[in-house]
UniProtKB/TrEMBL annotation:
The keyword Endoplasmic reticulum does not apply. It comes from Diatraea saccharalis. GO terms for molecular function: oxidoreductase activity. The lineage of its organism: Eukaryota, Metazoa, Ecdysozoa, Arthropoda, Hexapoda. This is Uncharacterized protein. Coiled coil: none annotated.
Length: 257
C-alpha cells in the first residue's frame, strides 16, 4: 500500500477534515498519530481507523497552542513510532467577528491557526528532514477572499499560505515538500462552532450551493483525497503550491464580499 511504513501526524483529527484525512490514510495502511483536544471524538476516529487497516493509531490529547503540549506530541510520536514522515496541519479555530469586536477573538484564532501550527511544524521539521517527508497545511479560500465577519480567520489563513511558501522555500533543498489545501465551504461544524446558529449555517450552505459554478458543496472526503495526493510520491515534484477545493467558489463573482 502507498503509505505502508509511513508515519502521519494529523492535528484536529477528531472531526471534519482531520477525521476524514485519518480515514483516508488508514485505507492506505499509514501509521497514524492523531491529535485533538476532544478525547471522546478522537478515540472514535482512532477506532474507525483501526477497523480499516488493523493498525492501532496513537491518540494524543493536546492543544497545539500550548507549547508543552506541542513538545509532548513530538516526543510521544517519536518514542512510539521512531520517526515522522508526514505532518498534516489541520487544527484550527474560527470566531465570528469584525475588527471592532476586540482583540480576544483575534488572539484566540491566531494562537491556534498560526502560532500553534508554527510551533508544531518547527518541532517536527528535524524529523521530516531525516525521513525526506512532507507537510500539508489546511488553509482556506478565505486566505485571499476577504470576509469582514471573519476577519481574524481570514488573516490567519493568509498567514498560513505565506508560511507554507516560506517553509517550502526553506526546506526544498533538504528534500522536504510543503503544500496547502484551501477548501471553500465544507459541511462541517466550523461556522456553528464560530457562533452561528444552525439556521444561519444552513443558509450559508444553501446560498453557496446555488452560486458556486458546480452548484454543490465539497465533502470532507474531497479535501482528504487532495491531502493524500499531496502527501504521496505522486506529488513528488509539487511544493509551495496551493490546491483549491471549493466547487469553483473562488471564481464566482459576488459569492464572497
Amino acid at each position: 500500500m502507498e503509505f505502508e511504513h509511513k508515519v502521519v501526524v494529523i492535528t484536529g483529527a477528531s472531526s471534519g477534515i482531520g477525521a476524514a484525512c485519518a480515514v483516508e490514510f488508514a485505507k492506505l495502511s499509514a501509521k497514524l498519530s492523531l491529535i485533538s483536544r476532544n478525547k471522546d471524538k478522537l478515540t472514535k476516529v482512532g477506532d474507525q481507523c483501526q477497523k480499516i487497516n488493523g493498525l492501532k493509531p496513537m491518540i494524543i490529547i493536546a492543544d497545539i497552542s500550548v507549547e508543552e503540549d506541542v513538545n509532548r506530541i513530538v516526543e510521544e510520536t517519536i518514542n512510539h513510532f521512531g520517526k515522522i514522515d508526514i505532518l498534516v496541519n489541520n487544527a484550527g479555530t474560527c470566531v465570528m467577528g469584525k475588527t471592532q469586536n476586540g482583540i480576544e477573538a483575534f488572539d484566540r484564532v491566531m494562537g491556534t491557526n498560526v502560532r500553534g501550527t508554527f510551533l508544531l511544524t518547527d518541532k517536527i521539521i528535524p524529523h521530516l528532514i531525516k525521513s525526506k517527508g512532507n507537510i500539508v497545511n489546511i488553509s482556506s479560500i478565505l486566505s485571499t477572499k476577504p470576509l469582514s465577519s471573519m476577519t481574524a480567520y481570514c488573516i490567519s489563513k493568509a498567514a498560513l499560505d505565506m508560511f507554507t511558501q516560506c517553509v517550502a522555500l526553506e526546506l526544498g533543498p533538504k528534500g522536504v515538500r510543503v503544500n496547502s489545501v484551501n477548501p471553500g465551504a465544507i459541511k462541517t461544524n466550523l461556522f456553528v462552532s464560530a457562533g452561528l446558529s444552525k439556521q444561519e449555517n444552513d443558509e450559508i450552505f444553501q446560498f453557496y450551493e446555488k452560486v458556486a459554478p458546480l452548484q454543490k458543496i465539497a465533502k470532507v472526503e474531497d479535501v482528504a483525497n487532495i491531502v493524500v495526493f499531496l502527501a504521496s510520491d505522486r506529488a513528488k515534484c509539487v511544493t509551495g503550491s496551493k490546491y483549491v477545493v471549493d466547487c469553483g467558489a473562488i471564481i464566482a463573482e459576488g459569492l464572497l464580499n
